[in-house]
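To assess whether the prediction recovers the assembly geometry, we first specified each molecular entity separately, as shown.
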Amino acid sequence: MSSIGLSTPPHVVNVGADLLAETVAGQAVPVTNVDWRPPMPGTEADLATVALDPLRRDANARALAAVLDVRARLVDVAPASELLGLERGQFLHAGPPIDWARAAGPLRGALMGAAALEGLVSDPEDAVALFESGSSVSFEPCHHRSAVGPMAGVVSPSMWMWVLEDDASGRRTYCTLNEGLGKVLRYGAYGPEVLERLRWMTDVLGPLFKTAVQEAAEPVDVTGILTQMLQMGDEAHNRNRAGTLMLLRDLGPSMVTSGAAPTDVAEALRFVGGNDHFFLNLAMPACKLALDAARGSDGSTMVVAMARNGTDFGIQTAGTGDEWFTGPAQLADGLYLGDYGPDDANPDIGDSAITETAGIGGFAMATAPAIVRFVGGSVPDALATTRRMHEITLGENPRWTIPILEFQGTPTGIDVTKVCRTGILPQINTGMAGKVAGVGQVGAGLVTPPAEIFPKALAALARRTRARASAQG
Amino acid sequence: MSSIGLSTPPHVVNVGADLLAETVAGQAVPVTNVDWRPPMPGTEADLATVALDPLRRDANARALAAVLDVRARLVDVAPASELLGLERGQFLHAGPPIDWARAAGPLRGALMGAAALEGLVSDPEDAVALFESGSSVSFEPCHHRSAVGPMAGVVSPSMWMWVLEDDASGRRTYCTLNEGLGKVLRYGAYGPEVLERLRWMTDVLGPLFKTAVQEAAEPVDVTGILTQMLQMGDEAHNRNRAGTLMLLRDLGPSMVTSGAAPTDVAEALRFVGGNDHFFLNLAMPACKLALDAARGSDGSTMVVAMARNGTDFGIQTAGTGDEWFTGPAQLADGLYLGDYGPDDANPDIGDSAITETAGIGGFAMATAPAIVRFVGGSVPDALATTRRMHEITLGENPRWTIPILEFQGTPTGIDVTKVCRTGILPQINTGMAGKVAGVGQVGAGLVTPPAEIFPKALAALARRTRARASAQG
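The predicted structure of the complete assembly is given in tokenized form:
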């Protein structure tokens, strides 16, 4: 027990002990947390092995530094066929690899809609037979092609994609243009209005953005916009309102002088301005661009991707190459649109947890207290969540800071060993898709990965540690 | 002394007592403040008189309700000559009335520049003789013409103004278009680049906005944008970043289809997008439009205007008609641009304290913690300031809420009796002008009104109370 002296005695009523500790900590008053949590069951031996890995400390420091060093700039917009060599019948999707038989409703719906968009079928329903046979179609994770996709994350050859580049390395990442909310392909809807919007995006919006990006006075600084967003109530996963407005600010002038018809430019401005989530599709590849800098760091226990396909939740780490560690995707707890309820929701889906992997989204909820009106929870929860995420991360991002926490950097670089040692799971803000193909969005909420994937990743890291040790011995 | 039990004993180091109380309160934990402050010296008798005024309670409730009920929409943009009947040689300025002899450097500089803009002189320096003689020129407060002006607040006939209207009453308020920061007329600069920019605003920007406002799908909802800004880190006095972006979003499409040359549209978008303060000139008249609804409320002790001309700080109250209660404007405490320091700054100037009068600006600092990097102070100070302003205001604004304070409404309706009873002065965020005419902005900071103007207003309210009592007796 502790006694705090106050010259003006306040009546503090019914303060939950943890809440007060979090509150004081949230105000940047130094708090030493001596609470001890048991490690995840069965991880003790692997934790001991990895803790003694002589590579770990430096590998993690270098991995984190590499991530923090990346500056993402918007350098091009072009169709996926051109950028990724995606051919007729080839598709990308969110999350770890999966086959049609195990694919969730919204992923199936998005693939069906994309098949119709590409002219493989005229009715999306006819695509079911196509994907069941698998003879002329194939799909693989966005992450395998330097891309990320929100929700179902389906990419087909004719879809235009943002191209982000890291100045220093020349590395690039890709993401489609955001369609808006409600009945949209990425939530598994494939009705005529969905396909019509996608065709307009292909015919008008993509080419307009390409000219605007090429003619802008300088490349849009996506990492810099993310810095500003965190000062403006966006956590860049489920709130991208300020980011969307800053993109309009930066691209608007060169859209106007692009030579496109004023009515098309005005419609494009209205489309972007009417969709507060538009910037998500730039935030995500910026996060992937940063995290990819840490891939292939032997000995590093840092997570470089968290991604869900609607059935499986998968992670990859810096020290385990392209291997996915997967478990069942969870149902989010949150707020529902209209008459939808928990029975309508599909388990967690999308590559958008790349934002949390990079230290924003749910990890930066403290800077976006208004998010609780969209994903549920309370303002103190939002502050406590960011604080808690510092316990499972390797460091802070000096560029992405949270004013209300006295400009503390966002918690960055999820450490598999810290997750296993504390049992604290990464907090993800997410949209919720309807579980039936064709429905679309049903809500938004909070979710975590399945706990078992972190011991799986830890075991793989421990195997590598032991293999290195025996090779040297 | 009080003891707070914690199951996880934290090490709380060197917490200032008031800071902790404010912090806990800022987190919406109920705190009963039993601290007693003496009333302002010499106000006891007037406080007793006004406290017993049978009109006061209802008059204040109605005045506050009237303010909260106003919804400001952007309905037109036109020159001051047309809107206000301002004629050649007539000017408006910020703050209470003043003559040339007592006018501060930045107000003189702005009048000199405006005289050149209007072609009364070719060299702004020649305007000094004109204003000294006073034969063909005159100036009066913006507030006397339903207008407000930031800093020097000078309006001349050719300047274009925003027109805001309250749907319900049809009442209107006016404000010029914002010029940007640094060397600008409102900070007292009048060099060739200042006048050139003002001419471009008159020739290109004003007419372009007029068409865009007329052709927009619906009038821009300025009150609604202010609601959003408070969720996006803007306090709408010294941070108007999100508001500026939302204005661009709302007017951009009709600017594009206005028929203006694309290069002019692009230049206008760049001009607005490059000036995070652009929206201030819409926030201010929206606040005036709301507060003017309370004017002429017999018995009300609510402040309806706080305004400064660089020499005098003046307030008006709902219960005392058009009378100004004035005292010497104070120097702000804040951060300076470049090599400027306290010796370069003019005392407080501008009508922009209308934002604080309406419950935002300094009163809403808690929602804009990043503001401390511009005006100085600390994040806990920002939270504490909003909390403190609730002690001198009549109520909260249910439309303008602060997420980090669990969506508590902004403290609204400064009560002269509460200020006198507690000695707590309204907190204002402000820009700082150079004290020498022609210099421009030198910094930004925090300031309060001179304390003595509140007892003066209280005395006038008490006189009216006594006059009513004796008329009835």
